[in-house]
Amino acid sequence: MKKVKFRHSATQVLVLSISIFLSFTPLVLGQDTIPAGDEPQEEVAAAAGAEVSGDAAAGKNLFNSLCAACHKLDGNSIGPPLRGVTAKRDVEWLQKWIKNSQALINSGDAQAVAIYNEYNQVAMPPFPQLSDIDIENILAYTSAPKAEPAAAQAGGDAAAGGQGTGGVSSDIILGILAFVLLMLLIILFLVNKTLRRFATASGVELPVREKRAKPIWKSFLENQFLVLVSAIILLLVAGYGMYGYFMQVGIDQGYKPVQPIHFSHKIHAGDNQIDCKFCHSSARVSKTSGIPSLNVCMNCHKSIGEVAEATATDEYSKEFYDKEIQKLYTAVGWNPEEQAYSGETEPVKWVRIHNLPDFAYFNHSQHVEVGGIACQTCHGPVEEMEIMYQNAPLTMGWCVNCHRETNIMAEGNEYYEKIHEELSQKYGVEELTVAQMGGLECAKCHY
Fold this sequence. Notes:
Elements: H1 10-29, H2 56-67, H3 91-99, H4 101-106, H5 110-118, H6 132-142, H7 149-161, H8 170-201, H9 216-222, H10 224-247, H11 265-271, H12 276-279, H13 294-301, H14 318-332, E1 334-335, E2 340-341, H15 364-370, H16 375-379, H17 396-405, H18 414-427, H19 435-439, H20 442-445
Antiparallel strand pairs: 1-2
Helix pairs in contact: 1-8, 2-6, 3-6, 13-14
């Protein structure tokens, strides 16, 4: 037997690949993670310059219910910012001012008169119901230092980098798996090559594939029955594909454009539970739902110049939301520092999402006000959408199916009650659908 010399031993390659894999593993698993105790925590220590004894948590509740309408902790509103106010004013003076500011102004107090004139002589409502302890709790809350966003951002980045893997990046794990798979393929190739050399050296004849006498495609072409069946199948598949393609023309289900100002329906309609018709008020009385005027936005955002820390998510940070509010201020010409409009406005070019063909008529008031149809029926779970998108296909078949399945609301409407009674006898049903009321007539939507 002829002795074969192996230049590339499969065992050596396997040992080498395992060694490389084990050398990478400690480096990956040993990546630093954020200690559990390093998350930013809310501090309630008093600001430098004055010590206020009080319950900051109770003061926060009082501040949100009594003070937040006119004051912010940071930034001007109807009144001045209140963070660190105890470092600027005496606590006893603040108690007198909060309980009855007008009495303090009428007494001729210099500080009270100066503040009154600085803020356009807007009178602050008195709060005689607040005790000294209540006021101390509010002042304790306003004395809490502002949380540092840098620490929170660093923690968020670290958490995003090690999400679900204990600090190990998923890209690194996928890279290691790809490397191991490549090593296995190389090992299999070398083993196959070595076995072939060993068989040749041992005099073993390797099986040789016999060439076909005739290529398979020539045999297929000579069989007329197979050609005919294949041609029919191809024509049917092509026709079905063309039909499906053309039926999707003009259907924009799932369309999610990027708007010039990021508006989160999840925050407004979901978290804050703002009624859809508060902003889209014309849906009650008009054919269209209308684009809300920016003045509607400013009804709230005159006093809301930034979002709460709890609003931020892994995808959208607090800084991102605050910048979008600043875009709104730029569009309407609002100066948050001076609490006044500059008169310099910019148009906001909103991108339309839901768009019916011109030959199809749809009336929002008929469905929303008369029919009592919820907005989510057509627009989907709007209260869960961070970015608004088209939820329904808005096709003719989709509308027709809704008319066939939806019962009309006849209660309290004498006109509908009379027709309902007559048609109920005609169709032999207790409740009429929109289709049975004539909702499938062509002229209802096309005229």
